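Example record

One chain of 166 residues, shown exactly as stored in the release files.
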Amino acid sequence: MSETSTAAGGISACSITLQLNGQRREVEVYPWTTLLDLLREQLHLTGTKKGCDHGQCGACNVHVNGTVINSCLSLAVMHDGDEITTVEGLSENGELHPIQQAFLDEDAYQCGYCTAGQMMTATYVLNSSHIGDSDDAVREAMSGNICRCGAYKNILAAVQSTRGKV
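Predicted structure tokens for this chain:
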């Protein structure tokens, strides 16, 4: 991380490098910039949503080095050199990721606002050996994601129908 430019008040921006959705990106960020704001405002990856901005709803979930996090609670400068995957990075070669297809097949969304965060947590759940495969284990692991429309039954069905495909 290196200092590059100065904002009003003498605060310097920092240059950081991310491995973002499989591509190396070098960006300048101010120390107060959250990872969520970097993704949405500077990099225009708007699939990741700003819901509560307090880490309580899961709409902003992304993967950082293989772990799911609330991007609204994490400063961008903390992720210099990290591998970050957003919902846009799930699909490959124009093909939907199995969880994306399952959300379509199982009608696991209504308004869609929570969907990206739900998918990011779901892929983490499906790839984690320490999370059981029972409905109760999945519900517990997904409990940090709020769906205001109440599509939980269909979200669970999407996760369970994707087992063995990721």
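Notes: The domain at 2-88 is CATH 3.10.20.30 (Ubiquitin-like (UB roll)).
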